[in-house]
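Re-run with default settings, no changes from the original entry. Doing this only to confirm the output is reproducible before filing.
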Amino acid sequence: QVQLVESGGGLVQPGGSLRLSCTASDIDLNNYAIGWFRQTPGTEREGVSCIGTQGDTFHYYAKGRFTVSRDNAKNMVALQMNDLKPEDTARYFCAARHRCSGYDLYYKFWGQGTQVTVSS
């Protein structure tokens, strides 16, 4: 079973930044659109951002504060989160699909997620 791996989460103060990474050892992420999602307890997963195979990006949450990028050499996709707010607190997941979507349906591969907590 292909597994994506997220890292970079943690506790950060409001106004701070975090950079999440999504990597995989069994697939070439360059061949997939990579979406980022967030989920809080009792809610459904919400689309955050997505980057397509051609580098095209889509943002569904926190527009202007979050950016998504690829590092093809490292087989990694990053989510840069700036000016974090307490409401950004959630578990963040990356997932792979043939093309970008802000909905979690049909994403083929998922990671276990990384917790982001924004608190003073």
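The radius of gyration is 13 Å. The chain is about 0% helix and 50% strand.
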